[in-house]
Write a structure and sequence with these properties.
With 184 residues, the protein is α+β, with helices and mostly antiparallel strands. It is built from six helices and six strands. Strands 3-4-2-1-5-6 form a six-stranded mixed beta sheet. The two termini are 15 Å apart.
């Protein structure tokens, strides 16, 4: 993965496959320069046994291949910066994954195009789950939720090209003052 936003795409796809109704995404940049990328869902969660093994690249729930590199690569990229990955999950309740990146490290990946990534995530699963995004940095904060915009759209699909473009542009406008220049 060449940017943090691509890790987000991978982790959120796991939440969708887990049958989540809500996926809460957070990017929190502290004054100390540590960025937390978190994804919390209310999907099927993981058993204690799977949770113990999920950090291994030879563990996956997919039947199409025998390796799962998403979490191991996320861990590697976070740890290269001096950060870490925390995973909490309970079967039947959901999963919360938090990756911490030390942004001052020469090994820290750029944030990437978070607005386009979020627009792609929403377009790929326009009906379910509901997605919420919260971004916080010393420069400010913003929040976005598909649950909030659905009533305004009056039944128009979130996958409609014009809606996707509007979401992307709205997110760019809100994210830029928070992370612009910090994480490029």
């Amino acid at each position: 993965m060449k940017e943090i936003a691509l890790h987000l795409l991978d982790i959120v796809q796991n939440s969708v496959r887990a049958g989540a109704s809500h996926v809460d995404i957070r990017f929190l940049l502290g004054a100390d320069g540590v960025l937390e990328m978190g994804v919390k869902d209310d999907g099927c969660g993981m058993s204690a046994e799977l949770l113990d093994r999920v950090r291994s690249p030879f563990t996956t729930t997919r039947t199409t291949r025998k390796v799962g590199l998403g979490i191991p690569l996320l861990m590697q990229n976070a740890m290269q910066t001096g950060g870490r990955v925390d995973i909490q999950s309970k079967e039947g309740e959901g999963t919360d994954i938090a990756a911490f990146f030390v942004t001052g490290s020469i090994d820290c990946l750029p944030l990437g195009d978070l607005a386009s990534t979020m627009a792609s995530i929403i377009m790929g699963s326009p009906d379910k789950p509901e997605f919420a995004l919260r971004c916080v940095s010393p420069a400010g904060e913003m929040s976005f939720s598909t649950e909030t915009i659905r009533p305004v759209l009056e039944g128009v699909s979130l996958a409609e090209p014009g809606v996707v473009q509007w979401i992307k542009e709205s997110l760019e406008e809100e994210i830029e003052p928070i992370f612009g220049g910090i994480m490029k």
